[in-house]
Amino acid sequence: MPVQLFRQGARLREMGLPRAPRADSSGEIEFPGERKEAAAQMRDTEDEIREIKKEIIESRGLLIKTNNLINSLGADIKSVAKRQAGYERRFNWNGWVFLVVVAVLSFVGLKLASDARMSEFDSENDVLEARVQELRSELADETDRAEERARAEAEAARFYDLIRQQKRGDVVSGYQAVTQEKLSPAEAAFFRDTHDTFRLDLSVTSYQSGLELMRTGRYAESAEKFQEAIRLKDDGAHIPNVKYQLARALRRLGRQSEAIVYARQVMEQDMVREVQPDATYLLALCAEELNDLDTARDALRVLIRRWPRSQLARDARPQLRELVRQAIRGRQDAAMM
Known about the structure:
The protein is mainly α. 85% of the residues lie in helices and 0% in strands.
């Protein structure tokens, strides 16, 4: 009620109307003396009311500002919440993407590592298989060598028994077979030297047999023995003598052409010079028997020139003169015809 009266008095003052007497709280009308006191109280009350209104207005402004701040803060909080939610979503997505990428990279890395390891295992397996094959091949080769060596030792023992028993013919005939075996260097050298020695012995034996056959007039057999002696050891020191005796045997057999070949070989060699004059004279005789007077004369001239003091040279001189006369008569007869 006082507030309503205050509002009505305020409106009346604003309109310029005099204030009516007011009743107090008991309903009694105030009089002018009391009016001043009431007016003073009214002014105080108005001042208080204005202060209150001002405070209310300020409070309402503060409330509005506070509300605006709260709304702004709420909007900011919502924006921050949205950004945080977006950040969390991005973080979650990034986390999942990171996990997926890490998983993929890990899988790829494991796959690559596994492939590299498998490739390394395959390479090592290939190397080991190649090594196994190589070892198998070496084992097979070593087995073959062992078998060959055992066979060679057996052949060497058998061949050595032939040597110890002095079976020269068997040693010479079996030498080529035993050389095909895997002999040690010492065995090969010993067998080679023994083979050469036995060949020389057999060649000398054949030569001596041929001489014995020559003495008994068995020229064909002696020629075979001489040829065998040459075949057994054609580089022996006795071979020039063998060839000379072979030429003699062939001349006895009427094979002067072959005899001339061997006699000429003896003439041209320098190993045994003592037999050269005999071979030269034999060549001249064979050529004369073949009616090859030019070859015969050449051989006699060589004999006389190289060995002028030998007995054969003295025998060759009259024979050469006779051959010259025969050649002259032959040319004269040919001219007359």
